[in-house]
């Protein structure tokens, strides 16, 4: 008697559906028709495969047998299909065949990563023997069928990494045998059904990566005592972490990062004795870190960064003897760093940056000999750097910038042979740079900006061939720049600005062919600019300003095909601007002011159409007329030609439609002032001491009576007006004192409130306005918006206004509070902020430009509706580009603290 061929024909059914649907061939018209076909159909099907030249058969090419075991299909002894597994097979189906539900004996269905789209057929709910259903990593859409709740034998359900939407069906609570439920990385919405708390066999529950999943975490999930993993990260889940999670005695991983969870961390989590990974970063958690977490002796990763946690770091965390990563950065923690953390001998990463920690750096941290990353930056730490830091032989990165650490740099850093990044910027360090540091063969980033370091730059710097960034600006280093620096063949950034370097600029710097930034401004460097500098063809920014360079601007500067900033102001340069300037087709800013340059402005400068930010030729000896070619600088926003000997008309400037700032004062210009909306907004300071300039109705001829603008009045008239204004002001002040004498208390209270909001600042002219891109508004437009009703937030470093420009554009204006640092030269502020203005990162709010006068500093940002206001409030000018060398630990779409 012939044995049943049910498994064979069922296999042919499966094969025909998956293969022929993929090829869009209508071979079979109905399930019943195929089931009645003879066994020989399998060989016919193989022939069909070969005729279509398929590279392989997903089901194999074995000869037909009565007990079939084709690749991907498993049958029972009764010749029933019990398993269909085709993972990572390119089926390319537009839908899942609902006829698969006819395989009533099916126990395993795995079609993961097979390029299937469409929805999940509700008829799959009839596969009551199914124990594993894996449809992950496809393009399935639609909702999760509630009918899947009928699969009472199901143990593993993988629907992750699709495009499924709708709510999570509460009927899934009927899957009493379910051990793994993976729904992550979809588009499901609604909340987590509390009924799922009845799945007592559940070990893994993953719903992370569903941005539309909202609501609170059901406390009933605390009943899932077999749960080892709960993943709800990168969702809209909110509310508090249920204290009932303390019942999850088998929990190993709790991932709730990048959600909207708030409240305090429940101390009950200290009862989860099996916990290995606790990921709560990038939330809105408040309160203190529970000391009870110190009971978690198996904990390896504790990530709490990016919250609003307060209080001290519990010393009890030193009992977490298995801890490998501890990250509490970007919170509001206070107090001292517990010395007991030195007991964590397997700790590899300690991130405590961006808090308000005080006190000394505990020398006991040197006992953490497995440390590879130690980040203590942006705190209020003081005292010396412990010399025992040299015991950290595995240390790769050490960030301490933005503290108040004093004393000298320990020479024992030379023992940290694995060190590749050392940032001690913005502290109070003194003494010289230890030569031992330059013996570190892997050191690529050395940042010592903003200290009080003295002495010379050692010649041994040449030994550190791995250096990529050397940033020593804002110190008191002196002597000559050693020519050995030219041996650093991998150096990309070289910052030596605001020191006391003297002597000539070594021509050997030209050997650093990969150099992109060279900044030596504010030193005492003399002599001519070496023409060899022009060989640095990869240079993007060159700042030699505020030195004593003499001679001419080298013709070789025309080789800078990537240069976007050339800053040579405040030197003793002479001669004319070389015509090779035309080759700088990526130049956005050119500052040659305060030199002794002469001759005509070369027409070639008008062909540098990339000039968008600023062109400053002021305070030189230029003669002649404005070249007609400058009409091509249509994207230029700031132009300063003041204090030269230029003459002729300024009509051509009316064509520069992007200008937001212009100064042509103290020249010999004549003729009518252009009649454009921009020129009508200019203050008198823009045209001073050009007696032959005049107003015009049509922009071509002067009025018959030669009426002059207020800005063209003689110095005598201006002085008279000034005296009158001062007298009137004094009279008003005297009257105010008399009127308010009897209301002193109320006035002081009102002034206090006003000062807290607006800073009671002086908004008087002149203003410096430097944009970092094309901006369609002026400083007056910005100042008009600095009103109390436009305040959207205040923080430790400033107040932020919502500012709507006349063209409807919204920007955020941050006005910095006055601090002692405001006593620093304005040029220092400008230099740093210009660096910040060109940082580009998808998670850093874009800086559009800055404005400043003698007492007020304004930062202009893109306005982000419902965005992270905290980024604006906590940003600081102390984040010089070099100080931002941190690892981007902000996972996924998080905010990078700093990286450059």
From TrEMBL:
Gene3D superfamilies: Phosphorylase Kinase, domain 1, Ribonuclease Inhibitor. GO terms for biological process: defense response; response to other organism. The keyword Membrane applies. Keywords: ATP-binding, Leucine-rich repeat, Membrane, Nucleotide-binding, Repeat, Signal, Transmembrane, Transmembrane helix. It holds the Pfam family LRR_1. It is found in: Membrane. One of its GO terms (molecular function) is ATP binding. This is Protein kinase domain-containing protein.
């Amino acid at each position: 008697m012939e044995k049943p061929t049910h498994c064979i024909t069922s296999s042919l059914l499966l094969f025909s559906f998956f293969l022929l649907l993929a090829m869009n061939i209508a071979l079979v018209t109905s399930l019943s028709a195929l089931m009645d076909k003879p066994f020989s159909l399998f060989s016919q099907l193989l022939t069909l495969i070969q005729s279509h030249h398929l590279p392989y058969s997903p089901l194999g090419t074995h000869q037909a047998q009565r007990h079939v075991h084709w690749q991907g299909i498993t049958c029972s002894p009764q010749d029933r299909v019990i398993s269909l597994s085709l993972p990572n097979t390119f089926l390319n189906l537009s839908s899942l065949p609902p006829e698969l539900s006819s395989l009533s004996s099916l126990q395993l269905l795995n079609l993961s990563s097979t390029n299937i789209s469409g929805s999940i057929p509700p008829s799959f709910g009839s596969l009551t023997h199914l124990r594993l259903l894996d449809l992950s990593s496809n393009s399935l859409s639609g909702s999760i069928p509630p009918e899947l709740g009928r699969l009472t034998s199901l143990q593993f359900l993988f629907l992750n990494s699709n495009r499924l939407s709708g709510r999570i069906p509460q009927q899934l609570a009927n899957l009493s045998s379910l051990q793994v439920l993976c729904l992550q990385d979809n588009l499901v919405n609604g909340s987590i059904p509390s009924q799922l708390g009845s799945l007592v066999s559940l070990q893994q529950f993953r719903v992370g990566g569903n941005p539309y999943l909202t609501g609170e975490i059901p406390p009933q999930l605390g009943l899932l005592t077999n749960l080892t993993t709960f993943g709800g990260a990168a969702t809209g889940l909110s509310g508090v972490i249920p204290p009932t999670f303390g019942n999850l005695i088998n929990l190993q991983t709790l991932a709730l990062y990048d959600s909207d969870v708030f409240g305090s961390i429940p101390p009950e989590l200290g009862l989860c004795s099996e916990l290995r990974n606790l990921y709560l970063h990038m939330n809105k958690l408040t309160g203190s870190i529970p000391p009870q977490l110190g009971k978690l002796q198996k904990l390896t990763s504790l990530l709490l960064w990016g919250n609003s946690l307060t209080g001290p770091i519990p010393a009890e965390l030193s009992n977490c003897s298995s801890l490998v990563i501890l990250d509490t950065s970007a919170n509001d923690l206070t107090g001292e760093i517990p010395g007991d953390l030195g007991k964590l001998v397997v700790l590899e990463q300690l991130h405590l940056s961006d808090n308000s920690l005080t006190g000394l750096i505990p020398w006991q941290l040197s006992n953490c000999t497995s440390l590879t990353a130690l980040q203590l930056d942006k705190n209020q730490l003081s005292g010396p750097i412990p010399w025992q830091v040299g015991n950290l032989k595995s240390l790769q990165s050490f960030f301490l910038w933005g503290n108040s650490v004093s004393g000298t740099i320990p020479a024992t850093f030379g023992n940290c042979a694995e060190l590749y990044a050392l940032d001690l910027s913005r502290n109070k360090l003194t003494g010289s740079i230890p030569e031992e540091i330059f013996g570190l063969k892997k050191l690529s980033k050395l940042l010592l900006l903003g200290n009080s370091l003295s002495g010379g730059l050692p010649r041994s710097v040449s030994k550190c061939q791995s250096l990529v960034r050397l940033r020593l600006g804002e110190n008191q280093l002196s002597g000559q720049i050693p020519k050995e620096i030219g041996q650093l063949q991998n150096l990309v950034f070289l910052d030596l600005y605001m020191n006391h370097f003297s002597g000539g600029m070594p021509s050997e710097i030209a050997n650093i062919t990969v150099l992109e930034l060279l900044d030596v401004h504010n030193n005492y460097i003399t002599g001519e600019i070496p023409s060899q500098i022009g060989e640095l063809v990869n240079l993007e920014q060159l700042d030699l300003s505020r030195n004593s360079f003499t001679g001419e601007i080298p013709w070789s500067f025309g080789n800078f095909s990537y240069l976007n900033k050339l800053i040579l102001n405040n030197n003793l340069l002479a001669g004319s601007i070389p015509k090779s300037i035309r080759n700088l087709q990526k130049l956005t800013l050119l500052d040659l002011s305060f030199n002794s340059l002469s001759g005509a402005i070369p027409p070639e400068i008008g062909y540098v159409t990339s000039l968008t930010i600023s062109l400053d030729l002021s305070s030189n000896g230029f003669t002649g007329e404005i070249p007609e070619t400058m009409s091509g600088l249509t994207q230029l926003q700031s132009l300063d030609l003041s204090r030269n000997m230029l003459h002729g008309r300024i009509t051509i400037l009316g064509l520069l439609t992007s200008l937001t700032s212009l100064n042509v004062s103290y020249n010999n210009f004549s003729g009518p002032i252009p009649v454009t909306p921009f020129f009508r907004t200019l203050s008198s300071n823009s045209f001073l001491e050009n007696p032959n300039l005049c107003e015009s109705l049509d922009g071509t001829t002067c009025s018959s009576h030669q009426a002059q603008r207020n800005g063209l009045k003689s110095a005598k008239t201006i002085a008279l007006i000034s005296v009158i204004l001062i007298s009137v002001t004094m009279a008003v002040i005297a009257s105010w004192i008399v009127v308010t004498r009897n209301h002193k208390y109320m006035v002081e209270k009102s002034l206090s409130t006003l000062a807290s909001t607006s800073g009671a600042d002086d908004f008087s002219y002149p203003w410096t306005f430097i944009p970092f891109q094309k901006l369609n508004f002026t400083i007056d437009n910005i100042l008009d918006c600095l009103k109390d009703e436009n305040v959207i937030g205040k923080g430790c470093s400033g107040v932020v206004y919502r500012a709507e420009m006349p063209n409807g554009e919204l920007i955020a204006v941050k006005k910095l509070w006055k601090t002692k640092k405001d006593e620093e030269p304005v040029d220092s502020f400008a230099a740093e902020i210009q660096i910040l203005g060109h940082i580009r990162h998808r998670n850093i709010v874009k800086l559009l430009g800055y404005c400043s006068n003698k007492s007020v500093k304004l930062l202009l940002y893109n306005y982000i509706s419902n965005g992270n206001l905290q980024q604006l409030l906590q940003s600081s000018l102390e984040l010089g580009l070099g100080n931002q060398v941190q690892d981007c630990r902000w996972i996924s779409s998080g905010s990078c603290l700093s990286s450059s």
